[in-house]
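Try this one yourself first.
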């Protein structure tokens, strides 16, 4: 079987899906998948509010603008690159993917060949030996800028200039290349040290009319078209006006806060990843936004302090899949914002967290799921909580 897309049924067929495990709904009609996701959100939140219809994609393929491949050897010692087989550390050599950006897939294929021809050793996790660990690509949907991050086990990169020359001749659209050094025996992809080998060391993209710098370790939503719809809805639900103080918690590179700042009195963004916070500060200045400040802290720690003597009218929160923390939620109940917009890529933990907020005096007044990750089991969900009168 080869990978293909059935236009009529919006169904993908993927030769790798069984092993790769990335696309749980490969082979299913897209409308059926959306129905499954809708039901899942209704089961979680239907008791509180009428769940709006999930917003799907018109053409749900090649939407991932961030692509990650693990590099290794197969049993015949050929270089392979792809994802880990589900629940294992065996690599599936995904030479074609229905959800990744095709240009990124092509670049990875060529890098794989170059690794073999330059005789670079893929890193062997068990032995803790070898050179190349991962390849990471990010593409700006609007700008078409591409960032390549090559994760190596050490600083050594023999014949580096030659390797880069051959690669960039083949793929002149790669605007920046970063070598990331991960010398630890860990399943974490990225290490702490970056060496810029080409270009600026970051890419930029335009989202909701604003320009954003994205550095290698910063979070950036992987589905551009759907993210624009998601942010628009979240900001609409937040119903921000010129006198409002807005907190953008778990703000990444400041995207939501910066887009929302045009309507707000002031916005405070809080984020744990220092590289993302640096990006966020630069992003405010690129967009000439003066009413936003960004704080590098654990969102819970920050809110505990903030709740002691400051107020906020609106809190937009977008935590990672594991959800928020009791410290954060309890502080939120002290701050008593009029509206809380809770964006989540993990609706189970979102459901757990909003129980705390409901108990503390809020009611769920809107629920809108978005399909940011077609063909996978993941669902993004936006909930509006308003303070009970
Ligand atoms: N709102 C952003 C980022 C959402 S992803 C966007 O839409 O792009 C979640 C973010 O939370 C990531 O940037 C991650 O680094 C950050 N994060 C994770 N744990 C955190 C914590 N304890 N405190 C603050 N930020 C955290």
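Now uncover the answer:
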């Amino acid at each position: 079987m080869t990978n293909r897309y059935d236009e009529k049924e919006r169904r993908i067929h993927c030769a790798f899906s069984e092993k790769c495990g990335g696309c749980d709904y490969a082979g299913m009609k897209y409308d059926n998948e959306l129905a499954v996701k809708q039901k899942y959100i209704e089961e979680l939140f239907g008791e509180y509010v009428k769940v709006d219809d999930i917003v799907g994609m018109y053409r749900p393929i090649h939407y991932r603008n961030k692509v990650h491949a693990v590099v290794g050897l197969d049993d015949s010692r050929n270089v392979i690159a792809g994802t880990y087989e589900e629940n294992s550390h065996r690599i599936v050599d995904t030479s074609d993917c229905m959800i990744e950006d095709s240009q990124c897939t092509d670049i990875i294929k060529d890098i794989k060949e170059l690794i073999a021809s330059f005789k670079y050793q893929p890193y062997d996790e068990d032995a803790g030996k070898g050179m190349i660990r991962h390849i990471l690509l990010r593409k700006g949907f609007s700008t078409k800028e591409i960032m390549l991050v090559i994760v190596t086990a050490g600083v050594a990169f023999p014949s580096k200039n030659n390797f880069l020359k051959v690669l960039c001749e083949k793929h002149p659209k790669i605007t920046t290349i970063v070598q990331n050094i991960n010398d630890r025996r860990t399943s974490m992809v990225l290490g702490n040290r970056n060496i810029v080998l080409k270009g600026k060391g970051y890419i930029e993209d335009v989202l909701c009319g604003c320009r954003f710098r994205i550095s290698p370790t910063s979070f950036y939503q992987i589905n551009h078209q759907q993210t624009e719809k998601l942010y628009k809805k979240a900001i609409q639900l937040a119903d921000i006006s010129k006198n409002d103080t807005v907190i953008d918690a778990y703000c990444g590179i400041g995207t939501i806060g910066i887009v929302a700042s045009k309507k707000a009195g002031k916005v405070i963004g809080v984020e744990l990843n220092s590289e993302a916070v640096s990006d966020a500060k630069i992003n405010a200045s690129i967009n000439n936004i003066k009413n936003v400040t960004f704080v590098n802290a654990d969102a819970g720690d920050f809110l505990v302090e903030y709740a002691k003597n400051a107020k906020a009218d609106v809190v937009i929160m977008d935590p990672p899949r594991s959800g928020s923390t009791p410290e954060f939620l309890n502080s939120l109940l002290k701050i008593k914002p009029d509206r809380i917009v809770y964006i989540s890529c993990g609706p189970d933990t979102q459901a757990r967290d909003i129980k705390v907020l409901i108990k503390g005096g809020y009611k769920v007044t809107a629920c809108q799921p978005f399909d940011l990750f077609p063909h996978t089991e993941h669902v993004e969900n936006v909930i509006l909580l308003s303070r009970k009168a």
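Discussion: The two ends are 59 Å apart (CA to CA). The longest strand covers residues 362-370.
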